[in-house]
Specification:
Glycosyltransferase, glycosidase, 13 helices, Beta-galactosidase, Chain A, domain 5, 6-hairpin_glycosidase_sf, Glc3Man9GlcNAc2 oligosaccharide glucosidase activity, single chain, hydrolase
Length: 588
């Protein structure tokens, strides 16, 4: 049986559970799953929206597989049973006729290694517009074109129309280098190259070993989930294509296809330790699509951008302004002055967009006009109507202007640096005047100048500015560590457990989000609550370590992932990585 030499790959044996977690590769839009209800069967989905084929921004989630009924077969095309072992770089199938293996030859090509010395192969179902068998396998023409090929001695090449598509069987005889490939891409010129399988396998093992070998070491208790978190990020990378002008990380190839602004910035936190270019690309990727008025899109996918939504209200849609804050964290690790020079002016324009076009009453307090611009899509903060003058948004803008001031100073723009420092302080003061409830000791967002008295951790966000008085900070922290509100068995719920809106299973109405915990670790550190910051960081790490996979959000009482929480989630992985590194180094 094949066993990889790399200790990193061995350590992650069977962590990829193919019935829920797809096998993919850096840059690839091809996802390999195992059927839940049909034995010994795989399928291949596309991490693409293809809105021309299936209109609607989320229709890709319900789209059927591009290749279905994918099975391993003997020389006559009969399905063979298998037991699969998963690694980051390979799938290994034990069958009664020998061992099959699967790797990515490149980001558009999967390669099946066949058992040595016998005839065997694969069968699958596909629904193209045109099928064309040939001497090496065949081609299909459809919304994405596919070539299936072998470098072995062809034994059986059968294509049968099944009414709605085609059933294909391809078997070949050869040696340890014999392979069958599936090459899938949008272009008409299909690459029929079949790399000898041992070469493809060695290359896959080498590139994933290098990926893990480049990461900083962490303390042993964090290590297993730490390397899995790095796999999540690497596996979620999408290669440049269409509107993707550089590599970007999908939040979860399994559930969120494209690049989201908020997510990209959080992903950069991990890459700053291993790949300065990839870290800066996550920020600059979104700036590539900045609108003339300064707005940055909510999300980008292969065929376009998302800048306007009609539900639940019709409004422009973006995401919270944290790019400058993240960029300064990246710079602190990498010293990348070129990145700062490229992003400073676009971020200044973005800041102007917020203040110029999102303050309907011109009171200096900025609003969300669309709930999705907050990133907190279904939070009860939006139940009472839009727009909302939001505590979290104005906190982000305080941090953004502070970060812009630091950038300006580094770039020699000292007068601008002083201006940003003044504007950040002025907004912090204005937030106290506008939002602070001295009786309750927290900040309320407003709709039509009426406080929205829904208790969420975002009412405590101004702690993060570092510009509140010690007395206000103490009131905010008292709420944070109250076991009757936010200090649950797994803190911090996104709605207080004492609030009637609390629902521990519904997205932003109660579950714990790792990025929000990360922000509060930062806030507590900044304001001198180091012991509490350490405790929150450790409990956040333990929460993520409590599950085999890394999820979008978690139940604050049980620590389990709620039913709709997406698996292999990028910013949870990235924040886990950053916290594990800094806890191991004693930086928290």
């Amino acid at each position: 049986m094949y066993v990889p030499a790399s200790p990193y790959l061995l350590a992650l044996e069977n962590r990829i559970r193919l019935q829920k977690i797809p096998f993919s590769d850096r840059g690839s839009r091809l996802l390999i799953y195992q059927e839940r209800r049909v034995a010994d069967t795989l399928y291949l989905k596309l991490a693409e929206r293809l809105t021309a084929l299936t209109p609607g921004l989320s229709s890709y989630r319900a789209r059927p597989p591009f290749i279905s009924n994918l099975r391993l077969v003997d020389a006559e095309g009969r399905t063979v049973r298998f037991e699969v072992t998963t690694y980051p770089h390979a799938l290994v199938f034990q069958t009664p006729i020998g061992e099959f293996r699967l790797v990515f030859q490149d980001h558009q090509t999967v390669s099946f290694g066949l058992p040595n010395g016998i005839a065997s192969g694969i069968r699958f179902t596909v629904s193209p517009d045109l099928a064309r068998p040939d001497a090496y396998g065949g081609e299909f023409k459809t919304v994405r074109n596919c070539a299936y090929s072998t470098n072995g001695e062809l034994v059986l090449n059968q294509v049968e129309h099944n009414g709605s598509g085609y059933d294909v069987i391809l078997t070949a005889r050869g040696d340890a280098d014999t392979a069958i490939t599936l090459h899938i891409q949008p272009g008409m010129e299909l690459d029929r190259t079949v790399v000898p399988f041992r070469t493809a396998l060695a290359a896959a093992e080498s590139r994933w070993h290098r990926w893990f070998d480049a990461v900083p070491s962490v303390d042993e208790p964090y290590r297993s989930q730490y390397y899995y978190a790095w796999w999540v990020l690497g596996n979620n990378i999408l290669a440049p294509y269409g509107y993707f002008r550089r590599e970007s990380v999908a939040p979860s190839k399994a559930h969120y296809v494209g690049a989201w602004q908020w997510d990209n910035y959080f992903h950069a936190l991990a890459f700053r330790y291993t790949d300065p270019r990839l870290a800066s690309d996550q920020i600059q990727f979104m700036l590539d699509h900045q609108l003339p008025d300064g707005m940055i899109p909510d999300a980008v996918y292969d065929e376009g951008t998302i800048t306007q939504l009609e539900v639940p209200v019709a409004a422009a849609v973006t995401k919270p302004p944290i790019a400058a804050w993240v960029a300064m964290l990246v710079y602190a690790q990498t010293g990348d002055m070129a990145m700062l020079r490229e992003i400073y002016d676009p971020l200044v324009r973005w800041n102007s967009w917020w203040f110029g076009l999102n303050d309907d009453d011109a009171d200096g307090i900025v609003q969300y006009s669309h709930p999705f611009s907050s990133g907190l899509d279904d939070s009860p903060l939006w139940d009472y109507g839009m727009p909302v003058e939001a505590v979290d948004l104005n906190t982000y803008l305080c941090l953004q202007m502070e970060a812009l001031g630091k950038m300006a100073r580094l770039l020699g723009r000292n007068r601008e640096a002083e201006l940003w420092k003044h504007r950040s302080a002025a907004l912090a003061h204005r937030m106290i005047e506008h939002f602070y409830d001295a009786q309750r000791g927290l900040f309320w967002s407003h709709h039509h100048h009426q406080p929205i008295q829904v208790m969420t951790p975002f009412s405590l966000y101004p702690l993060w500015t570092g510009q509140m008085s010690p007395a206000i900070n103490e009131r905010l922290v008292a709420h944070l560590r109250d076991v009757g509100t936010f200090w649950t068995p797994h803190p911090l719920p996104t709605v207080a457990i004492s609030d009637p809106h609390f629902n521990p299973n519904q997205m932003w109405r109660g579950p714990v989000w790792i990025n929000i915990n990360y922000i509060f670790v930062e806030a507590l550190q900044r304001t001198g609550y180091r012991d509490l910051a350490q405790t929150l960081a450790e409990r956040t790490l333990r929460l993520v370590m409590g599950q085999s996979d890394i999820y979008e959000y978690y139940h604050p009482l049980t620590g389990e992932p709620p039913p709709k929480a997406a698996p292999m989630f990028g910013w949870s992985a990235s924040c886990y990585i950053d916290l594990a590194i800094r806890m191991s180094r004693g930086e928290i």
